[in-house]
Design brief:
- The chain has 208 residues and is of the alpha+beta class.
- It has a single domain, classed as Glutaredoxin (3-Layer(aba) Sandwich).
- The longest helix is centred in the first third of the chain and has 17 residues.
- The radius of gyration is 17 Å and the shape is globular.
């Protein structure tokens, strides 16, 4: 039996288009015959290195207005609940990302990730406070208090920093990003299908 190809899904909880990708990647990847490795990370340090102090959707208001309309259209197209813009935007995703880093390799990572995105972009709830993250973990039948305590330990903080350094070293500059096993980088929810096709060996005609 041939080995199943894998893509890495790099996502940031404050990212609008990461929300869309997180809610549909499992079904799309299963249909394509591709396994997914979920890679949470913080985009803020990467933006800071470019001299940005906030989301480019805030820095460029016209782009931001169109993004929110586009997000609403795409959510409707995918059959997701109507988008609720979190206030403030972007939300501080540190606690949630620490928890997700802790959950890598655990069966609760995907449901936790999707629950965080739903809370933020479908329900308009804050994900910034540790208590909010604990409540989401508890809702999944987990011990949120103990998990967030472990997520805040120095060893896990180090894992989060290493993930950010890896993202930068591999050329990631935004979220969502998809990396195939040969290092091909695709950026944006609208590139998910292309990433999956690349992962299974499909190449556009004439592209080396």
């Amino acid at each position: 039996m041939a080995r199943q190809p894998t893509i890495e899904f790099w996502y940031e909880f404050a990212s609008t288009y990461s929300y869309l990708a997180a809610m549909r990647i499992e079904a799309a990847a299963a249909e394509a015959g591709v396994a997914v490795r979920w890679r949470p990370f913080l985009l803020g340090p990467i933006f800071a290195a470019q001299g940005w102090t906030t989301s480019p959707f805030n820095l460029f208001p016209a782009k931001g207005r169109n993004m929110w309309r586009d997000l609403a259209r795409e959510a409707a197209r995918y059959g997701l609940p109507p988008v609720t813009r979190p206030d403030p935007f972007p939300q501080n995703s540190l606690s949630a990302t620490r928890a997700a880093i802790l959950g890598q390799g655990e069966d609760w990572l995907i449901p936790f990730t999707q629950a965080v995105f739903r809370a933020s972009f479908a329900e308009g709830r804050s994900i910034a406070e540790p208590a909010s993250v604990i409540a989401i973990l508890d809702s999944l039948g987990l011990d949120g208090t103990q998990l967030l305590k472990a997520a805040s330990a120095e060893a896990n903080k180090t894992r989060l920093r290493v993930a950010g350094e890896e993202a930068r070293s591999r050329g990631i500059y935004g979220a969502p990003s998809f990396l195939t096993e040969d290092g091909e980088l695709f950026w944006g929810n609208d590139r998910l299908e292309q990433a999956l096709a690349w992962a299974v060996g499909e190449r556009p005609p004439g592209l080396l």
